[in-house]
Amino acid sequence: MTDTVSDVFEALAHPTRRQILQDLKGGELAAGEIASRFSASGPTISRHLGVLRNAGLVTERRDANRILYSLVGDRLALSVGDFLSTVCPEQIVLRTVRKRGSSAPSAATS
């Protein structure tokens, strides 16, 4: 059994993979579009995409002869959030306070 949180942090360890995630924030991109943004070779970018996919941070779908990649933002947020909650217990309290604050009516709307 693999440690999926370790996979996420391993994926985040490389600046190219972090940049790919930032690029995908704007929406789905074809593998060729992603590769064109880097000076690295196509196979190198493909390996980076494989690491991100194996970590569950991106999904892929085929459209004819293209492979399109999308960000799985919840996966990243949950993995990093869980880790931070473990090492920074005050984050749990802050998150609870924020949830209560966002569900309560604001003074401007009252």
From TrEMBL:
<dbReference type="InterPro" id="IPR036390">
    <property type="entry name" value="WH_DNA-bd_sf"/>
</dbReference>
<dbReference type="InterPro" id="IPR011991">
    <property type="entry name" value="ArsR-like_HTH"/>
</dbReference>
<keyword id="KW-0805">Transcription regulation</keyword>
<dbReference type="InterPro" id="IPR001845">
    <property type="entry name" value="HTH_ArsR_DNA-bd_dom"/>
</dbReference>
<feature type="domain" description="HTH arsR-type">
    <location>
        <begin position="1"/>
        <end position="91"/>
    </location>
</feature>
<dbReference type="InterPro" id="IPR051081">
    <property type="entry name" value="HTH_MetalResp_TranReg"/>
</dbReference>
<protein>
    <recommendedName>
        <fullName>HTH arsR-type domain-containing protein</fullName>
    </recommendedName>
</protein>
<keyword id="KW-0238">DNA-binding</keyword>
<dbReference type="InterPro" id="IPR036388">
    <property type="entry name" value="WH-like_DNA-bd_sf"/>
</dbReference>
<keyword id="KW-0804">Transcription</keyword>
<dbReference type="Pfam" id="PF12840">
    <property type="entry name" value="HTH_20"/>
</dbReference>
